[in-house]
Design goal:
single chain; 238 residues; mainly beta; Immunoglobulin-like; 2 domains; 12-stranded mixed β-sheet; 5-stranded antiparallel β-sheet; 55% strand; elongated; disordered N terminus; disordered C terminus; signal
Length: 238
């Protein structure tokens, strides 16, 4: 007997849309940052890392700064040198990406996620392959241990992709439901400075659940995006 497997990873990306100047040997280089975090099925935080991208016009020797435990080149096989908070590398690519892993850093939001099947509480790990009436509840709130600048200025977009062959009678009061090929996509928006309780219900057969994505994005383009340093504790310098 093959036991059905449910992917219970929740992925959070915090989009830092502002470009940040960094030190380059020949010219100014634009930098974008996206913070990624994975959550356990109950909403507690796991790993966190940043993907940094740099737009360059010529071959550049670039020096960046961040409080990373490790760094990884995501573009090519060239070496990245890490010395304390200083990260240096050479690139001739139009866009260069590297990952910096963080430790002990917290999100601006807290997530409390619970599951019920046929009216009974159940762990996410025990849901795989089940039939019945599913209820998922997601509670969002501010993390009081983190500077509130992101919580006050960023909205959350939460997206669940459900197999239309397994999920029927999908109901939610807070979100929108749309067709996405053979799937149904349920999307929620949580506005800045707001705590929400999001509820999804459906009748399921042979239950499987894909990774759920949560994105934090500026609520308006006119808002000056906060420095990612507010989360990472790292130092960005020119």
């Amino acid at each position: 007997m093959i036991k059905k497997r449910m992917l219970v990873m929740w992925i959070i990306s915090l989009l830092i849309m502002a470009t940040v100047p960094v030190h380059a040997a020949n010219s100014a280089v634009e930098k974008d940052e996206v913070v990624y975090t994975t959550l356990q099925p109950n909403g507690s935080q796991q790993e966190m890392y940043i993907v940094n991208s740099f737009k360059v016009e010529n071959t550049e020797e670039i020096v960046d700064y961040g409080n990373y435990t490790t760094v990884k080149n995501l573009t090519d096989l060239s070496e990245i040198v890490k010395e304390d908070e200083k990260v240096s590398f050479s690139t001739s690519e139009d866009t260069f990406y590297y990952q910096g892993d963080l430790e002990g850093k917290l999100l601006p939001w807290k997530f409390d996620i619970s599951y019920q099947l046929n009216g009974n509480n159940i762990s996410a790990e025990d849901l795989a392959g089940q039939d019945g009436h599913l209820k998922i509840e997601i509670q969002t709130s501010a993390n009081e241990q983190v500077n509130p600048i992101f919580y006050n200025n960023y909205l959350l977009q939460i997206s669940l992709t459900l197999d239309a062959g397994k999920y029927q009678e999908i109901v939610t009061e807070n979100g929108t439901i749309a067709n996405a090929g053979k799937n149904k996509q349920v999307t929620y928006t949580v506005m800045p400075e707001q705590e929400e309780t999001l509820v999804l219900e459906a009748d399921v057969t042979d239950l499987e659940l894909n990774a759920i994505e949560i994105s934090g994005v500026p609520s308006a383009l006119s808002i000056e995006s906060p420095d990612v340093d507010q989360i990472t504790g790292g130092t960005l310098r020119v």
